[in-house]
Amino acid sequence: MGLVIPLEDSKRRASASLEPLLDLVAADMQRVNELILSKAGSNVSMIPEVANHLISSGGKRLRPMLTLAAARMFNYRGEGHIKLAASVEFLHTATLLHDDVVDESEMRRGKLAARMLWGNQASVLVGDYLLGQAFRMMVEVGSIEALDVLSTAAAVIAEGEVMQLSVAKNMSTTEDEYLAVIRAKTAALFSAASEVGPIIAGGDRAMRAAFRSYGTNLGLAFQLIDDALDYGGSQADLGKKVGDDFREGKITLPVVLAYRRGSDQERDFWRRVLEKAEIGDGDLEKAIGLIRSHRAIEDTVERARHYGSVARDALAPFPDSPHRNALIEVVDFCIERAH
Amino acid sequence: MGLVIPLEDSKRRASASLEPLLDLVAADMQRVNELILSKAGSNVSMIPEVANHLISSGGKRLRPMLTLAAARMFNYRGEGHIKLAASVEFLHTATLLHDDVVDESEMRRGKLAARMLWGNQASVLVGDYLLGQAFRMMVEVGSIEALDVLSTAAAVIAEGEVMQLSVAKNMSTTEDEYLAVIRAKTAALFSAASEVGPIIAGGDRAMRAAFRSYGTNLGLAFQLIDDALDYGGSQADLGKKVGDDFREGKITLPVVLAYRRGSDQERDFWRRVLEKAEIGDGDLEKAIGLIRSHRAIEDTVERARHYGSVARDALAPFPDSPHRNALIEVVDFCIERAH
């Protein structure tokens, strides 16, 4: 194994940022945001209330930006990318609403989860409404290929959530099993959001494959860094507090690695807190200590770097352009969140 | 991206070796070899001739050793592991015979390929015979679960070979598409060979999952290092010469990376030599030069390291034992081949 010196990286270039991407898609994103607000509307007043609670809670809207930038990179001149981008954000929002019900989460992006304010039933049904609206917008765009990619992603995401149920209380989950979950749960939507760009722009098979690969691997890197941050990131990130995953009994890669590398006694601890959910004072600190002692955060970040490298190489063949470079910088941005 | 200093590794410990594994399974392997020779026999004299040409050509028999070590690690006391190990080697041998026909290869392990001596038809049919014998031995063992895992692997391998046909002449193949090929073509058998160990030893779900993950990731690392060696390894390795993949127009990760990172002019070169198979004097040297200039070998090895790390963590939970440690050392051995 090589010795990794992450500092070398910051010497090589200034820290990566989302700004170039934000700037490039700003005008389009303004329209996406308007569409999102309008399509979350309904005469049933609870629907916009619940939807807007989450929609206006300050997510980065990274996924729809991928769609916009990918379409524009191939000089797409139509209107379809706005609707597809809004659909992508709706698919994501619907997933979050349903997730919080399934996970019994109390907080989301630093605010009370919708289910704490309007209840589980409303969260489930408004999620379904957003899914329906997402499909209506996709259909309006009229690209069967884009519909195919996004509807497949919607099914795969649901499959991933179900997979996660079986992983949730099982400490013997392997890294591969965990990866299969996040590949479905997170990476599938990043992948579809990216691939529909070249699709509506009339891109060829190679362009589609490159963006599918970019999105998948960016999504994996993004989720792994998220997992790492939950056991040691700054509180500011995404409104999550350190230890949210721990308190919810989620089994993520830092835990998988620490468990597998731990002693029998340590494994007893992990089974007690995560399988049996018997969490007491000081257990989060103990968990973080074990994760640190087994270098599980560093190695989770290292795994994320691997996927980030694959995502970068996916876009390598395209000519130097502001959109391509901004999309590549997103990879660096996602990984540098961990520093 | 971190800076990787592989030298740190060799300082940390002496170079890894297959010896501990070879020593542990020596007695069992002796019986596997006898079984292989006996089951490759037939009254149709061409069958043992063709089969033994390849069987006696000095492969490392790594895959059956994984089966033996995995079964013994869980204190398996029966006889089934011998037959399963021989089946695994037969599946592998059958694949090689068929591969050489499909790829029109002239050499295999430093000798003329069987098809050069007995023809394509004999190579295909003797491959089929070995597949049949492999299944007969599996059935004799009587474990439906082991049969399920190995027969699934056999189907997946064939699927991978077909996938490779479509990848073969397509320079726009992404890294993910290439990985899907080697996951099927190589990693599936490593995975099955490893998983049937705990299966016949009565291991639980977690043990099976760990060995499946170990085998898969070891297989991926093994194949990626093989790919890297083909563009810069020593001639001695596996009887392959540098550039075999190049001459056969095989698209492997070093080429995928060099192509994606290259200029338009460089991509014209790759398409000419690999898609159109117009290879002239100096083209191999030029290919190696391009691969070096884009650090494609280093990064292929880096990708292999990633999978190697996952394989190691798959076996991390098991108590310290000679078998576990030897299996982990196999990972290091496979990766260090690239140094």
From TrEMBL, chains A, B:
GO terms for molecular function: all-trans-octaprenyl-diphosphate synthase activity; metal ion binding. It catalyses: 5 isopentenyl diphosphate + (2E,6E)-farnesyl diphosphate = all-trans-octaprenyl diphosphate + 5 diphosphate. InterPro entries: Isoprenoid_synthase_dom_sf (IPR008949), Polyprenyl_synt (IPR000092), Polyprenyl_synt_CS (IPR033749). Keywords: Magnesium, Metal-binding, Transferase. The keyword Ligase does not apply. It comes from the Bacteria. Its cofactor is Mg(2+). Its EC number is 2.5.1.90. CDD domains: Trans_IPPS_HT (cd00685). PANTHER family: ALL TRANS-POLYPRENYL-DIPHOSPHATE SYNTHASE PDSS1, GERANYLGERANYL PYROPHOSPHATE SYNTHASE. This is Octaprenyl diphosphate synthase. It comes from Kaistia soli DSM 19436. The lineage of its organism: Bacteria, Pseudomonadati, Pseudomonadota, Alphaproteobacteria, Hyphomicrobiales.
